Amino acid sequence: MLVKIEVYSDGESWCARGIDEDIFTQGPTVDELYKNIREALALHFEGEIPRSELMFSS
């Protein structure tokens, strides 16, 4: 499954929102944002996709 995520800065923090999924997260740095994206995806698809199968490409 491919989930497209838009990443942007709102001037205070880094934000990410799913293009076709109801996902939003943010973080103070890009590294923290990527960690939060992984967590948001795992929670959003909990029970549908095993965590071991979640892959992340930037």
Question: Main β-sheet, in a few words?
Answer: 3 strands, antiparallel
H and E order = EEEH
The total domain count is 1
**Radius of gyration computed on alpha carbons:** 11 Å
- The unreliable regions are none
Distinct helical segment count? 1
Give the oligomeric state.
Answer: single chain
Strand content: 15-25%
Order of strands, widest sheet: 1-2-3
**How far is the first residue's CA from the last residue's CA?**
15 Å
- Residues in helices, as a percent range: 25-40%
Average of the residue pLDDT scores: 88
Quick recap of the structure?
The chain has 58 residues and is α+β, with helices and mostly antiparallel strands. Helix content is 26%, strand content 24%.
Structural account:
The chain is globular, with a radius of gyration of 11 Å. The protein has 58 residues and is α+β, with helices and mostly antiparallel strands. The protein has a three-stranded antiparallel sheet with strand order 1-2-3, with helices on one face. The chain is 26% helix and 24% strand. The chain has one helix and three strands. The protein has one domain (5-52). It has one helix at 30-44, and strands spanning 5-9, 14-18, 24-27.
List keywords for this structure.
single chain, 58 residues, alpha+beta, 1 helix, 26% helix, globular
